[in-house]
From TrEMBL:
<dbReference type="InterPro" id="IPR011833">
    <property type="entry name" value="Glycg_phsphrylas"/>
</dbReference>
<comment type="similarity">
    <text>Belongs to the glycogen phosphorylase family.</text>
</comment>
<keyword id="KW-0808">Transferase</keyword>
<keyword id="KW-0119">Carbohydrate metabolism</keyword>
<comment type="function">
    <text>Allosteric enzyme that catalyzes the rate-limiting step in glycogen catabolism, the phosphorolytic cleavage of glycogen to produce glucose-1-phosphate, and plays a central role in maintaining cellular and organismal glucose homeostasis.</text>
</comment>
<comment type="function">
    <text>Phosphorylase is an important allosteric enzyme in carbohydrate metabolism. Enzymes from different sources differ in their regulatory mechanisms and in their natural substrates. However, all known phosphorylases share catalytic and structural properties.</text>
</comment>
<protein>
    <recommendedName>
        <fullName>Alpha-1,4 glucan phosphorylase</fullName>
        <ecNumber>2.4.1.1</ecNumber>
    </recommendedName>
</protein>
<dbReference type="InterPro" id="IPR000811">
    <property type="entry name" value="Glyco_trans_35"/>
</dbReference>
<dbReference type="InterPro" id="IPR035090">
    <property type="entry name" value="Pyridoxal_P_attach_site"/>
</dbReference>
<dbReference type="Pfam" id="PF00343">
    <property type="entry name" value="Phosphorylase"/>
</dbReference>
<keyword id="KW-0663">Pyridoxal phosphate</keyword>
<keyword id="KW-0328">Glycosyltransferase</keyword>
Amino acid sequence: ETTPLITSPEHSVEGFVREFLRELNFTQGTVLERATTNDAYLALARTVRHYLMSRWIETTVDHYRAQPKAVAYLSAEYLLGRQLDNALLAADLEEIAAEGLASLGLDLAELRDAEVEPGLGNGGLGRLAACFVDSLATMSVPAIGYGIRYEYGIFRQRFAGGRQVEEPDTWLAGGAPWEFAHPEHAVTVGFGGHTEKYTGDDGVERSRWVPGWQVLGVPYNYMVPGYRNGRVNTLRLWSARATHAFDLQIFNEGDYVDAVRSRTFAENISKVLYPEDSTPQGKELRLQQQYFFVACSIRDFVDQLLPAGFDLRRLPERIVFQLNDTHPVVAIPELMRVLVDDEGFGWDEAWDVTRRCFAYTCHTLLPEALEVWSVELMGRLLPRHLEIIYRINEEFLAQVRERSGGDELLVRRMSIIAEHPQRAVRMAFLATVAATRVNGVAELHSQLLRDKVLADFAQLWPEKFTNVTNGVTPRRFVRLANPGLSGLITEAIGDGWVTDLDRLRELEPLADDAEFRRRFREVKAANKGRLVDVLRRRDGIEVDPGTMLDVMVKRLHEYKRQLLKLLHVVTLYDRITAGEVSVDDVPARTVVFGAKAAPGYVMAKEIIALINHVGAVVNAHPDVSTVLRVAFPANYDVTVAETLIPAADLSEQISLAGKEASGTGNMKFALNGALTIGTDDGANVEIRRLVGDDNFFLFGLTEPEASAIAEAGYRPSSYYEENPGLRRALDLVASGAFSDGDRGAFEPVVANLLAEDRFMVLADYQAYLDAQARVEAAYADPDAWSRSAVLNVARSGFFSSDRSMRDYLDRVWHARPLPG
Ligand code: 26Y
């Protein structure tokens, strides 16, 4: 039994103001007259926290009492975005807070802007994790998110001479009002050392790990409030600290300064998020991060969330660990180690339990993105885990041999251990062998996983493979990001859609209602106005809100094909400056880019520079700039997305078919009433099927077509030779027109397109231009365009992450909500 809870502060303006002033005085140690914006923001955040606290404790206690099957989401990334607005929404405090602060002469909007978002992720995969924990809380599912509390999140991007410069993200510098440190629940994790054989009391030969060094994992808890359902789940992020033993030896040797310095070695583990996506670096520190957080999380679950003396044979009844890509896959040998070495399980018994505790989500199709760890590194950092992986592999391959009648080629292909170019552990294979379920993140992606990336495994275990199409949380990406549209929807169909997004269907008839469309356009215009203000204040960029907003925001990657969008811009510029097209005949558009490049990805950084240089020339041209402008605000993040997406008219989803696993930005745009120009790739396929062909601009090669061309030998230069428009665009870039006459400046980019063009930009160029011509024609009829836009909203309810969670619950987790 727990002691009765102190009740939440009173849900009224007076109650709120009292609590806020108390926080300002007693925690911030200041008074209203002297408080900085940051003081007021911190006091506000803590005030809101108080309203959620009793729900949080109750949720935790209920879970402990009921011991239901819980979901543990293991993710190296959580791209959370700002917390304040979401907490205000969940606690139903938006109006009370605005009014209460105003009565003190404070502006909620200004305090909101003081929050630095926790950017603890790179892109889609990290944002997906944040959407999923939001949905799990809102659906009252007993769930916990585990991850890493990076001291520095994704770098801040600025441009110098149009080139990307990275700066550290000091998100903790202003204070961290949303986190709760629990050093008393720290966990010890070992690394390195060696293994030794011994004979157990039962006479059985066993192996044990003698780590060479240890670090402490300190948990930091974050609230994950459900939307007005009385539930607050937990996100637990681990921070690395040095143990005392860590430096004791050096202390004893008498070198105090060295001893203190050595502590930073341990603390480096959670220091910084790796800014690479899609191309694994094979860095030792990264493997340390992965093992660190999963070892802490498993220990934590077993020691803190299960009752004392729990029979671990029954673990699969209580937990499913969802592996967010391969980053946490070392959790599999870790659970085996805990069960076999620490708990004395027999191997088969331990394997039976372990297998039933894990499910694996793959997020890629690019072969170079599949993580492998060299046996050398794995053996040095985690020697016992390597032994366990070898044994898992041995037993697995014996099974393959038996089933295939000794097909050694197949055995080699499926081995968890690759032999070339070096001996290495294939983490995706390990995950697939161990997991109860393996899923892709959109229908097409799951199909390609079965047919290509993991085909041998799908043959062996067809029932393991499933699809769960990604989703996004409607709370953050519609209700909070687009209050105008939310108001319009709620007025029409009530507010049930916020937690039941399929109800957006009820808007369908309103697509034919001229008055509704007019109001929809009004909302879009107001959102553009909001964006114009933000870009002016934040970036000094002037955007004309009367233009079509054509938006491409996502990580910079060749497969996503920002270059295809740029070639469209260059072609428009070329046609207008050549006098082939009159500015009177094209609708005015603003092309907005937002993208960070991995700091070591040279080509991606060149493309960023090229976009900025083309943009500068286009924007400076007296005629062209009347109908075409390029805006590339630096440091695209969740906060920018929240003002950019609701303002967009056109959503660019133009990856080469078969390369984008799903995309989730595509869903956010459709839900906010932008029309998509896109390829038949990832979740675009499902978006188009749902919104209808008439309301989606499809273009480009299909996956089978692209594969066939690649198979036959792709020759990009043939497209250059045969398409005069394309040739002129590329020649223009190569001529130095966008680099003050310097012909060498973007030579590598052009040369790569002509010689290799791995992602078939040139092959899809003409189809893309034709589709953009269809966009222009459609945009010329505002009534028809807004009809399509409304239909996009009405038919995109499927892309709620609540639906993704229902699918995981049914197909993967076999767990249930536990409403309060
Ligand atoms: C191994 C390491 C370098 C690494 C780090 C981050 C590898 C990959 C990543 C991130 C991948 C990622 O964000 N993938 C995206 O996941 C989204 C959510 O499923 C998909 O919508 C999107 O298509 C996919 O590119």
